[in-house]
Amino acid sequence: MKPLLYAIGPLLFDSLGVIVFAVLLALHLDLVTATIAGTAAACGVVLFEIARGRAVAALQWISLAMVLFSAAATMLTGDPRFVMVKPSIVYLIVGAAMLRRGWMNRYVPPADLPLVGDVMERFGFIWAGMMFATAAANLVIAYVFTPWWPAFIGIVPLASKALLFAVHFTIVQLVGRARTRRASKLEICAAQ
């Protein structure tokens, strides 16, 4: 249970602004309220990290910048097409940031990194791919299936992240345990 909490805590924290925005849209709150709440949550995450004297992760800065930019554009234009395309822009930028090697290292305890670091690196690229796919799906839904967009944006991005997180976490745990057992067997054989 401890590895799950270690992994899920930063993931939820890093995504808090997007989660707040998506949940409020899914609850059919108006766009302005959802945008303001998402912006406040993203700002709160960065300020909390700064107040604790911790480094703010690159994805947190990107998330904050995109939420602030998109919130300003939403408030100034009031154009619903911009609002519908905005998540695709955010997902593309976040996906591009996820292409950096080692960005997932903060989601595993430092002691486990030598054991599963290669798996975490591969999943970093899988996460980037999911972000790119979500960006494309959002554009299709926004322009071809416009009436479905509020339900899509309120459910699919969060659900796909939760599903990938579950798969990712499970595989990392299984690989970590298998490698630990294999290392123990090798130590026993070497001792004999």
From TrEMBL:
Keywords of the record: Cell membrane, Membrane, Transmembrane, Transmembrane helix
Domain of life: Bacteria
Signal peptide: none
UniProt-listed Pfam families: IspA
Transmembrane segments: 5-25, 31-51, 58-76, 82-103, 124-145, 151-175
GO cellular component: a single term: plasma membrane
PANTHER family noted in UniProt: INNER MEMBRANE-SPANNING PROTEIN YCIB, INTRACELLULAR SEPTATION PROTEIN A-RELATED
Record's protein name: Intracellular septation protein A
Species name: Sphingopyxis flava
